[in-house]
Each structure stands twice: as structure tokens, then as C-alpha cells.
Protein 1
Amino acid sequence: MGGLNRNYQIDDDITPIVKEMTQEAINLFEGSAGESGPSQFTDEATAKEVLGTEGTVASGRMSLTFAIEMLRRYFGADVFNHSGMVDLRFLRPVRPGDTITFSGKISGISKEANGSKISVAITAQNQKGDTTGVGQGSAIVPNAYLPPED
Amino acid sequence: MVEADNKILLDWDALEVGETFEKYEYVLTQEMIDTYRKGVMDLEAGFPTIAHKVDVKQYNAKYRDNGSVNARCAFYCYSPPIAGNKITVRAWITDKYLRRGKNYIVTEAVSVDEDGRLIDRVITHELKQPSEVGKKWGG
């Protein structure tokens, strides 16, 4: 996936992504880093002990990953993987069985040395409509990917 | 790395902003990348380093506490890591703050691969009273 030529405007919507959270996905995420011991993410008893919750929760870093995916798909990997960022605050837990929708809207455009910084307001909501995370992301889109100026 | 038995009990008041941890090195394998991509349901996911939680790894190796909850996390993408490359991480305490009676620690880490490529930067705000969120979340 390369950079995408696009005309960016404030309030443009970003194409949302939807993720079905499962315990298996959480276990794979945690296990990918070689973590095999029980944690609040993978073990109900540990979650009860550490958090006081009745079940496991997903790491906030999974939500961060999904927000990054949304912006990478929007800006293109050539752009986002080299200049992108996401900053998320985690407001509510994401649990196995939840369906989380990540959406975004362009909130700012500013000139940089070799392109434009496009900022995006990001929201994550579960299937009940509760907001699980909010934040912002951005990428610096090179001039070559922008329409020529008048 | 400090052994588990020698961990220091966290004294939040005494913790110094700017404390830099021992460098952490690991080899990112293709299996790690494949497992990560399967877990996040994205076959093009470029930064499996996110799952390694490298910003808190050395903190957790040095200190023991009551656990934590990730309250906020920022991730900066510079170059997707390459399978088989050794990655070196530098991490430090970048801030700490008290909000609504709860203690937070902010850690920051920068990852560079064996070819000197800057991979990513991550900044995490961790709440150090995790049982508080359990109460808020309603179990």
C-alpha cells in the first residue's frame, strides 16, 4: 500500500475500521512479545486481583494499534509508517466480546517543510455506543502526494 | 537487568523524572511479527514493536508495584522494523503527576535497529493504582 493522492479538508471523515475483540486475539497480541505468564489481559484471576474486574481486559496498546491501522489505511503505508503518530487516552475497558469501531475526522492542516501535517481527531466506541478511547493522530503528507497548489 | 528478587518497591515520591534505564535489546523474529499481525487482525501491521511494551519493560524489571493501567499512550512511527534485526531500546521516566488523588508515571522509549534505523517512539501514562479503575469500571 503506497501513499495516496488525496485532497485533504478539515472535517473530512476517515474511513472507520471495526474490530471484534476476542480472548484469542488478546492472547496472540500478548504472546507475540514472548509474554507467556498470566496477566490482567490473559487471565481472569489476575485481572480480578490487579484490577478488581470480573474478566480480562485488552491492553490499551491494542486500541492504539487499531487506530494506527485506520490512519495507515487512510494515508497509505508509505506516508504513515514514516511520519505518522497516534496519541490515545483510554476511557473505558475493551473486553473480549466487544466490537470496537474506530473513526476519525480531519481536525487540522498545517504546512511543513516538505508537505502538510494532517491532524485527525480519533474516537473509539464499543457496541453499546460507549466511548472507549479518544485522541488524535497525524501524518506529514509529502507535497508529491498533495494536489498542486493554484 | 535487575533480577526479580532484587526489585525495588516503588516509592512514587522518590522516583526521579529523567531516570534512564539500562538499554534493552531483543531480536524481532518473523514469528513475533506473524503472531502480532494475527492478533490485531491486520496482515500489513507494520509495528509489532507496540506489543513488546518496551517503554515499561525495564521499569518493570527494576521496580515492583501494585500493577498499572495504561491511561494514555502515544506512538510515533519512523520505520517499520525488519524481521531478524536486533532492536535496541532506550527508555526513561519522562514525567510523573498526581491527578484526582491518583499517581501516574510517564515512560518514554526510543527503538533503533542494528542498522541504526530509527524505528519508533512510545510514550505511556500509567496509573499506578489499578484497582481504582476496576471500581470505576464496575467489575
Protein 2
Amino acid sequence: MNLLAFLAGPLEFELTRRALLEATLVSVACGVLGVLVVLRGLSFVSDALSHCVVPGVVVAVLTHASRELWGGVVAVLSAWAMALLIRRQLATDAAIAVVYTGMFALGLAMISVTRTYFNDLTEILFGAILAVSPTDLVISSSVALVVLGALVRLYWPLVLVSFDPIGARAQGISVERLDFVFYGLLALAIVSGMLAVGTALVTGLLLVPATAARLLARRVASQMVLSAAMGCLASWLGLYASYYVGIAAGGAIILAATLLFLLALVAAPLGRIVSRTQRGPSVTAGPAPARL
Amino acid sequence: MSNALTLLTEPLQYPFMRYGLLEVMLLGVASGLVGVFVVQRQLTFFSHALAHTIFPAVVLAAALRLDLTVGAAVGAALTVAMIFGLQRRTDVGHSGAVGVVLIALFALGVVLIGLYRVRSPDVGASLVGNVLGASPGDVLLSAGLLAGLAILLRLLFWPLVFSSFDPGAAKGLGLPVGLLDLVLLAMVASTATVSVRVAGVILTTALIVVPAATALRWTRRIRPAMLLAGAIGAGAGIAGLTIAYYVPIAPSAVMVLILTGAFAVSVTLGPGGLRPVRFNPVLASRADLPH
């Protein structure tokens, strides 16, 4: 009964109900897509993209326009530009850093023209999940649906391109068109996640649950399910901690995800030992093959 | 003519401008020196991570009334230790380890800042830097950093270059490659430690990476590239601070934008064209390049 009251506490309020729903939607979209991000070694690129969104959001804040619209346009354009740089092999990590520091500085320059910009900046960077509006919820659910739909529809091509882009091209898959879709989805997930935890922490929603899932599962589909589940669990834990302890929600969600990651880090070797003894000695049971 | 000159000298009458200018010059040169190694060794993500984890450490130290430099150094040391610990796990992956540690420590910082009720303007100010708030002590610390880096580079220049460009051969010749890597990381970490407190997160990364990347468009020789990178960093610092004196824009943003412009000009006009600079095909292919 006590536990029930504990769980029901935040559900009494409209704002916290919305926050829980928003965090769930965002965690699913980011968690599922994050697996592909990690698989393709795009941790740095996704972090760079989350910095590139900032000037768009700043324009929205300064003109009182929709953050999703401006952030979304800038995010999608930056993501496609980044995809182009990567395809042309121009995207060394230094070049990526030039792009995102420049974009971030552009946003900072614009917002610093107003005198009291620190509060706006803090909100852009760290999010304000308790201020989520019904419109935000509609947008985040659409993003989650689009991401899930695209992944169901394009699962095999996306996985194949992630593991072996040359092989995928040889099989007649249009890698360029697929990347166009993938980077577009990544941009949408970042914009949606930005509403929940802010531009500075959205990388955490993409990377941490996915990295943890990779430790525990081998098949990409299982990793995606696990990653989305851990993302949801982390955002609920974080929001409840934020509600009861009074800490910043965005940071709490990422910390909860980190906690799950640490558990996975400890559990992964144990799980491997268990599965090996269950299978018994076999000719193929050598060292686990390196994962991509 | 004299008018233009007064535009440049007028800010100098204020002590905070003098200290600020001196500080950005010192930080620019120091970052340029280590930046060439950072770009060559593809340590950009690592430096980016350091800047992000040192920032909450600094704000937290301020909240707890501890010494800021000590706080920053502890943040840097924790980051390096955790990244290296995690990278031993092959199932986490190289860039995965950097990403997770970066965002986890950053989030921890954000939560702790909230718990200690650090005011949002303070956080904002540390995030975007506070070059004009540089104290004589800060300037002295940066001068010390630059002197330390110069001495280390004077003593270990060739071993560091050799182990960076051809680690296999360096190991074969009996150079302590692991130790040299550690020295290099310590150099990057101490530069970030000194820089974040004054320059902020974004300018710290930009000052380390962008001038070096720009310089490497013009020359492929290490020593000239270091000097050029230092000059670009210091020049952008002076120009940015002077512009920010007259126009009410965050100084760190102006400096980064100048650096971005310098890179864009160098890519367009420089000898290399659009092609990325890669010295060492072995290193380039071994790193986790995105695809």
C-alpha cells in the first residue's frame, strides 16, 4: 500500500503525468535509434549534432516561435550536412569539432545579445521536462512512431549498412538514400529528446542505454528492445527521484541510465559465464567473437 | 588611422581587459601547442569530454568553497581514469567509453549543482566562460601552464612526435610509448583544466582543436604548425575580446566564431583544398572513424 502511494504520488499532478509520458516516448525513440548510433561508432557525431541544434532553438526562443520547428529544421539540415561530410570522407573528428563548436557559438552569440540570457541558456541546455506542453507530447509521440515505423520497415537494410556498408551497396541497397533516412531520424530523435533532458544531455539518452544493451544482448533487435526498456526505466527512476528528492530531472534521468549501465557492465561477464556453462563445452566455444 | 588605433588601445586602460587579453593569449598559445597533437592523435572527442566533465567539477568546487583549480584537476583526473578503465572492456568500445563517461559525469555535475543550489547565472557564466573575470592569479596559472608545456615539449619533443606518428616503430626503438601517451594526455588534461575555469566549455574545446586543425591546413611540419596554431588561438582571443568590448556578445562565442571563420578561409584558400589532413594512414584507419 505504501509502495502504491509512493508510485502514485507523481501521478496526481498533470505536469508530472505529462513529464512521465514525454520521458517514455523520448526514451523509446532515442533508445532504439541509439543502438544503431553505437553500432556505427557515431557517438561523437550524435553529440556534435546535439550541439548543432542550439542556434535553431535560440532563434525560436528569441522570436517566441516553436522550438521543435526551428530546432527540427536546423537538426535535420545539420544531420544531412554531417552525413554528406562523412560520405565524402571529410569528417575527421577535428572537422566535426569545427562544425559543432561553430554552430554552438553562433547560438550563444545570438542569445547573449539579450541581457538576461543565462536562464534561457540553462533551459535550452538542460531541458525543462516539467514544462512539457500537450503539443510537445503530440510531437514526441509522432517522432517515436516515425522512428519505430521506419525501423520496422527498414530494419535489415539499416542493420546491414551499419555492419558492412560496402556489402550493402554490393547487394543493391542505396546506402545514400538509407543514410538520408537514418540521419533524418537521428535529428528527429535529438529534437524530441531535447524537450525532455535538454540539448546538453540528449546524447545520454542515445548512448547510455544503447551501450548498456550492447553489453547484454547480441542480436540487434534484442539490443533495441533492451535499450528502449532501459531508457524507459531510467527516465521513470530519474523522474521519481526528481519528484521525491528534488533534483534536476534531466540530470537524474541520465544518472539513472548510468546506474543501469554500471549494472550491465557488472552483469555482462557473469551472463557470459552462465551461458557458456549451460551450452557445455563445444568446438565453437572459443573466445567470444569481437562485436562490431 | 589614429582612430583605428584608439579602438584597439582604448580597452587596454581597464585592468580587467588587460588581464583578459593576457589570459586569452596565454591560453591560445598553450592550446595551440597541445592541439596539434590532439588533432593528429584524434583526441578531439577526449578533449571535448574533458571540457564537459571539468565544468561541473569547477561549479561544484565553487559551491563547496573549495579551490577551483583543485576541483578542476580532480574532475580531469577522474575523467581520464574512468575512460581508461572503461576502454579496457572491449565490449564497450573506444568511443562508447568516452561518450558514456562524458555524459554520466556531466549529468552528475548537473544534479549536484542543483542539489547545492548553485544559481543558474553562475552555472551559465561558467559554461560560457568568464574571460573578463580573469584574476592575476588565473593569468599566473596560465603562464605556469604554458611554461610547463614549453619545458615538456623542449625535453620530449621528438619522442612525443615519434610515438604519435609511428607508435610501432617508436616501440621497436625502445621508446616508452605508454608513458609518452600518458604524458601527452596529462598535457591535454592540464590545458583543459586551466582553460575551462576561465574560457568555459565550448571555447576550451574550440581553442584546442580548431587552431590546430587550421594550422595543419597550411603546413604539415609539426613545429611550424604548433607556432601557427598558437598564433591563431591568441589572435582570435585578442580580436574576439576586443570586439566583445564594443558589441554586447558573449566573448567566448565571438572567439569561437572567429576561429571557425579562420578554418573556413584556410580550407578554401589553403593548399590542401577540401581534403582532410591525414598524416598517418595507420593511425587513421585504426581509429573508430564513423561511417
Protein 3
Amino acid sequence: MPSSKFEWMRRVKAVEREHIATRFAMDYLSAAVQRDPSRIGGDLRLRDFTDAAERLEGTYIVRLFAEFETCLRAFWLVALGKLPPSRTRDLLDGVGARRRIPHDQIDNAHTVREYRNSLVHAAEEPPEPISIDTARSRLCHYLSFLPITW
Amino acid sequence: MSAPSDIGQLRDTWLQRLSDLIQTIQRWAVELRWSTRQIEVALSDSRLGKYKAPALLLQEDAIRILLEPISRSAPGAEGVVDLYLMPAYDDIASLYFYDGDWHIHYVVPEAETVAEMCHAEPRPLTKDSLRDVLEGMKKNAV
């Protein structure tokens, strides 16, 4: 597992790039099956493609945040020598306090966490959607306050 | 499947191309009064496997830019390197190697994705085109 801030930021960026590639493939495939639904095989229906296309960005935001959270847990374990808090909110606040991360950057990371939670747990009052490039930007900004290596 | 010597030659050619690019940009950046630091990044390639390659950090005041190798090949190109505004990792420009030289694809600020940059009007990579991009990045970052 990397112990370099920069490698973790690259991993977050790599998820965004995968999303771009998958979005490109998905758009291409969706257009093809709409032109000719007979291309759809197995138990799949046209609706499955529409759903997949609609939820693609959210799926990648969940992965993006997973990389970010794994980084923070790895940093806490190695740099602080103890188990990280189980609640992700506490993890973000705790790392933020120890690294003196500006409050606006911590708040920005929390907005991504809250949006991720709404995607995973279907919140009653979902927060404003966040695009994947905004999510990547906010999480990389937060990570930039970690030490270069640990 | 390529023989090991072919793979070694592919990797050497790509790394030499990257090294030449980074030395050139480093020289121009210093002349344009940017500070630079060369770093090493881990890459993975379906043919070359895992390997280390050089990357370059550029900084002027609070503006930080990363020149990061992406791929040794892409449709119509024999090498892709991206320029990012750090620490947000925002896409700013892409460099493509074709026709024996590097070309810069730069769109700001309307382009929203890396994919859109592929359609940007390319310019040959020169000290002048690099300066335009760096100046644009500075304006965009403010």
C-alpha cells in the first residue's frame, strides 16, 4: 500500500480517468443498442443500459471516495500508530486537526462524503449532487495537506 | 506477443522520449522563472508491465503544475503526457507525440474533461506555446 501522498492523489485521479473511459464506452454502447435492440443479449433489457448510464458517475464517486478514505486510514494507522476511528466523519475531522487542514477544505471533503453516503444509503433528503471532477478536486486538495511520505 | 528485447526497446525509447521532454521543459521553465523538481512516478502498461518514469513539478508562487506521463501510445500518437494544476489535479493541457515531435492540446477554461482536450486545437510544443499555457494556468488558478 502506498505511503506517499502523491501516489494516493494519483490513485484518486486514476478513478476519474477510468470514469471518462467508461462513460465513453457506455455512450457508444447505449447508442448502438438503441439503434438495434436485437444486439442486447442474455437477460439484459434496454432499461438496464439506461440505468447504468444514469448511475455511472455516482458509482465512480463511490470508488473515488473509497480511495480517499483508504488513504486516510492507512495514514492514521502508520503515522499515528493506532487504529483509525470507525466513523468516516471522525476520520476526516481527526486527520484535519492533526494536519491543520483549513476548515473550508475539511468542509469541502465532508460535502463529498455526504454525497457518497446519499448514493450508498439513499438519504431521505439527498444533498446537492457533486460532479466527479469537483469531488476529485476537493479530495485531492484535502490530501495535499498530508506529509509527502509517512 | 513481443519478445523481451522488443519490450525492452519499446520501454527504452519511451523513457528516452520522456526524459528529453522533461529536460527541455525544465530548461524552458527555468528561463521563464518557474522553479522545477523532477520526481519519479509508477506506471503500468499492458505491454511494458510496471515501470518507473520521470515526471516534473513546476511552481511559481502558489501555482503548482504537474507534468505527468500517461501513456506511451494512444490512437494517432506515440506518447501522451498531461499537465495538471495542483493540488486539485485539474486537467489543463495534454501533450501528444506525433510526426516526430510533441504537440500541446490546451483548452481553458471551457473544456470540462480530458476527452474534450483531445479535440483542442493543437500547437507544436515550443517555449512560446509553453509560456502561453503557463500564463493561462496562472490566470485560471486565480
